[in-house]
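User: Hey, my collaborator sent me this sequence without any context and asked if I could get a structure. I don't really work with proteins. Can you help?
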Amino acid sequence: MRIAAGPAVAVPEVLIHQADPRSGLWDAAGGEYRSDQPPPFWAFVWAGGQALARYLLDHPETVRGRHVLDIGAGSGIVAIAAALAGAARVRAAEIDPDAVAAIGRNAAANGVAVEAVLGDPLDGGAGGADLVLAGDVFYTGGVAGRMMRFARRVQRGGARVLVGDAGRGFLPASRFVELAGYRVGVPVALEGVNTRDARVYELGPAPAALTSARTI
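Assistant: No problem. I've predicted the 3D structure and written it out in structure-token form, which is a compact way to encode the shape of the chain:
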């Protein structure tokens, strides 16, 4: 798999080491996916992450001076955009050691400081972050459920939660407020289409029933 640094389509301000656009994900993974060796998701810049990164650069007041945690950071594009937009501290969490290394390379290519953290924070808290970001994390029902429980937990702790999603199928959109929408160019070999519509959302208030349950 050939990797080269270049600008992201929707976020040309950010340089990312990416696979050749003619590469497909499963080709890059050698035609298989073993649970102890995940495919190189970090080698591709996904539409939801690009949308969220674009939103942060267009609205730097969202992150300026904040402590940011990027969940499932992949290539690190969202975390890097947060740093470029003026965040005081940026952490990017990933479960794939290769992704952690890629985040370090990409942050260096953009001249920003991003703390790449190996691990799964979804069963814990935000670690002091007051803004939690996540791009393209609602891709299975199980992951979506864990993400929503984590999001509600950190929201109760005072953090804002923003996500970027390109219609992956498991985002409970009724729980979110849409902030922006973008049409993002994507590799046909990866997505099967030339563009995807991606949206940026903020987690809305918890339903009254959940709020009442916590006070009993």
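In plain terms: The beta strands are 3-7, 15-19, 67-71, 89-94, 115-118, 131-135, 160-165, 176-185, 195-203. You can pass these tokens on to your collaborator as they are.
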